[in-house]
Amino acid sequence: MKKDYDIIVVGAGCAGSYYARRMAEHGYNVLIIDKSKRENISNDYDIFHFTRKEMEQFGLPMVHEGDGIFCFEYDTVSFFSPYGNYAKSGNSDSTIGMHKCEYIQLLNDWAVEAGAEILYEAEFKECVYENDKIIGVKFEQNGDEFDVSCRLCADCSGKKAVVRRSLPDNYGIEKFELTEKDVFFVKLRYIKFDEPIEKWLTSHNWMFYKAWLSPSDDSADAILGMGSCVSYKIGDKIFETLMKNLKLPSFKTVKIECGTTPYHRAIYSFVSDGFIAMGDAASLTRPNNGEGCAANLVLADVAVDIISEVMENGSYPTREKIWSVNKEYNKKQGAVFAFMLSALAKAMQHSIGADEYMYKHDIFFTQPILCGNGKSLSISADEIFNMIKYIFSGMASKELPAGELGEMLGGALKGVKVGLHYALYPKTPDKFDNWVKRADKLWKKAGQMSDYFINKQGEKS
Q: Is the pTM above the cut of 0.85?
């Protein structure tokens, strides 16, 4: 280990390994530190996934059957109404399931292969400053403390955001801590069906419950997942309702994994003097499902392109010089994510009856919208006419309560306003404070999905 690096990455997970690899490829001296042992790296869940398209897009190492990392691959996805009466199915990008710990170890080695260094069981303590700017990092390993200089510190430390939350109050980076209102509580039940069943190689989703049934490795027939706001207890209540309303084959639970993922807007600015936050440390996850890995790599790519150029010839990456990371990220992904997160806070707050009706008559929950895989969406005039017709018919029959419809449409409108505001993200830091004031007001009006769970005590009517 040297005493002087260009970049220190705190956290050897997906975002940290990827960013370290890419910056090392640009010729920078990169050190990754992680408080975990190598054998425990990113072991919160056993199985996670990328689509094959994402792995190719970001140039990630590919896995193959029999390599000890690969678990399954599927390319069909289905969405069901709460009682399972109506389904929308379609082909999706091929999804590859992998053992997470083993794949992150592969990414660690991939970063080292490009020239990065990595230290395990190395715990971040604090940043070192000169003239109020980050110039290094202190960390502890095996009881010894080390002081290593750098020009950029990348916080990829996960939900605890140990670097971001340690920064001075006036450093231009939000220091909020995620609370129970700001995360998704995820419980994964690895199950075996009581009767022999063909290996489960598709993804089944029930958006109303925020539940899904997807493939597993050889230890189980499938994974029955459930995400909820506020607490696992609320998730367990919703799971009971799910089991009463669906006719799944009988099964036994082999094992259960529990964990949380950020479900909060991303920090307003990812960068400051000699600093960038990525991944869960920046509260950056997909609003529709709480997943973060591929979404984080979009920000990492933007950061690599901009920061690698700024740091050429030994230059220091000041807040002003790397500010465009914020602007470019919001142009590529951030504005859409902001729209989705704010809209979903209200859009999912409706009853089982209304959900069944909308699935039946293709109101919002259409096959192209649910299974379109992010591709361009074209809705004909006849489809729009039928949607409007059944909205009014449902209101008249009270199968689609006007109050619930109003909440959904109101949420969509709030989402549009938030998304447009992010699309107008300031090009320079001098206009940032005014932008933040407006953003705070918009998010306060939009609310959070957890507000509904707290008000209803976790029970949907």
A: yes
